[in-house]
Amino acid sequence: MRLLPGLTGLILTLLRKLLFLWVRTDVIGGSREALELDPDKPVCYVLQYSSMSSRLVLEQEVERAGLPSARAPLPIHKGTDRSFFFLYRRTGGLFSRRQTPKLTPRMRQIVELGVEDPTLDIQIVPVSLFWGRSPDKAKSLVKLLLSDTWSVAGRLQKFLIILVHGRNTYVQFSKPISLSAVVDEYRDNNEQATRKLARILRTHFRRVRQAVLGPDLSHRRTLVEGLVRTPAVRDAIRETARRDDIPPEKVRLKARKYADEIAANMSIVTIRVMEGLLSWLWNRIYNGIAVNNIEVAQDVAQDNAVIYVPCHRSHIDYLLLSYVLYKNGLMPPHIAAGINLNMPIVGPILRRGGAFFMRRSFKDNPLYATVFNEYLHVMFSKGYSVEYFVEGGRSRTGRMLQPRPGMLAMTVRSYLRDHHKPIVFVPVYIGYEKVMEGRSYLGELRGKKKQKENIFALFKTVKTLRNSFGRVAVNFGKAIPLSDVLDETHPSWRQEAYDHEYRPAWLSKTVKCLSARVASGINASVAVNPIGMTATVLLSTERLAMDEVQLSRLMDEYAGLLKAHPYADTITLPEGDGKSWIDYCESMGLVNRQPQKLGDIISLEGNNAILMTYYRNNIQHLFALPSLIACLFENNTSLTREKVVSLSSIVYPYLQSELFLQYQPDQVGEVIDQWIDALVDHGMLRVDEALICRPEEGTEPMLRLRALSRCIIQTLERYHIAIAVLRKYGSGKINAAELEEQSTQMAERMSILFGLNAPEFFDKSLFRNFIANLQENEVVTTDEAGQLCYSEGLDEVAEDARLVLSVEKRQAIQQVTMLGV
Asked: Where are the beta strands (DSSP E) in 117-196?
């Protein structure tokens, strides 16, 4: 009798080895650490459907990972002869019709063991397996046979699937389910306990399948035709025909053309080809891709329609995020792409990779706007994952741009119409040590005409500068459920009725709140790298040069501040120390070394001096508050703690709006208090009875404090320029547009006169945002003629600048504004 089990084990081992001569797997969660297994409790694995091939893959991956064996009997009294079971068994023969799967006897046996013994707790580990991870249906019979979709494959179909897709097999181990916790309430009823465990496992496998494969997709042609038949589009067709005196049939054809122009055509073949090409490309141009907090996306993707909202720094963003998600077991999202990318050859490839195309403006074309809105509504209501950039375009300065409300407003309105499928936003920070388009950004910031965005220009850049882009970080931030934002801004939203035309009065408030949450969520997930740290310190020097030892020490100090007072638990810091970061930047060609007998000097020269402001701006918000505190001691040897908190709190709303800081104004006083203590602990400030004092002039601590102040001082100078121009003209004598233009010209003049290597110093959009915030905070009002009016309160704000800005800078701003006016 002992011979039979041994022979069976030998046969299974042989079959497993034969199978893995062909099969190649990508495994997620297959480790003790990821599963958080309790070593004192038995482990039993569960697969959804009875399958010999699935069993062999399970046994192989468990053995590779050093996990508790799946082949060995459960180490318990009256245990089963192996440590895994199938949830369902198949019915029907090889060629006979398949029937509804039924629960397996072994699954029922496991439940009985748990019911009979209250002291027994088995860790049930669900294991999901996908052959090929196909996301679509197709008309081709061959493709239907050879795709792992939502349908249950028969034995012949499974054989063909393995034959074609076995080298692209995906295995996901999920965290264990406690058998004892499941059956506790049904100790006297085996059947109810069995049904409960089956329901939990069935729901789990369905959620994992949706996260990996995406929703069960219909054919694109059906989708396009369906859009034209929706009530909203039919109404828009009738209205357009009436308004423009065009036959309805012609308008209907135009609407269908719009739908065809917009809709994605996701293809598994394209996704697989692009995965291979992108793997080659990333290895070619990057030194690695670091992915952090991917668990956030993996968790929310199982029950929600996920909207990925990354920062937009490069054309590579589109490809990189989809690649990272696919490699980590998630369906690539449908991506909102500008119509300018819908070019010959490139456009169809992007469309098959999940891109849907949108025009830059919907104005004066309500028919197009309606078709696009309905397309988005289909995406969200069916649970597709979507990606779009709230900034609209790529950031040329390295800062987070002001979010554009269009896509966010469409998303909110769609959710109000149909909120049975929860929508969750996932902020994503994509950080480059060297952005591909850096040189073209440099030209644009110097006034060169913006190049037309196209993929060909991007790959021309790759060809010229390959193998010099360092590492990339993809950090996922904390998820933002849309329902939470709605509850916060309009608690009664669930009780109201909405249709496709309804735009509630409170929509703009909700979209503004959502925009701020998304933007601050992206910034709270920033990846700090050696380039950003080096840029932050070197750009704080007057001549963009510093002794190597001193530079290294300052960077270590800054990194210590970020560790002592973490901005958020989703940010990541670089490994190593200041010395290794300098060496790394030198190897990347971003800093110069001048050998000296008394110590080498590290400097920024030429284009790098401006280019490094881009990388400094990536992380500027992390140092905003400590730098603001340091600025207060530029002209003051001591201040009371209350004065420091008060002055910082006055400036904070403007910094928050510009840099998307995560603290609310009513929280910031406590945060500033904590930063004061952190600076005291690091020796940059000291406490003398009731006063906060700066270090002695000429000392090392004073040098560090002054360097820290320069992280944000130019932002404060820009604010002072706008206020100085406004006060020079006088109350009621200039409108917002004129103030924006005059302030921009003054800032550009100062930038030339004082050699400021920071193009964002005279960025018109930053002045526009500051002026809007002055109005929002009622420091400035607008009269009937549209002119800006102010009270004595503005004079008080200008007077407070005396405590922050140096005498030289205040006099220079005054002189420049007088000349300009």
From this structure: 123-131, 169-173, 177-178
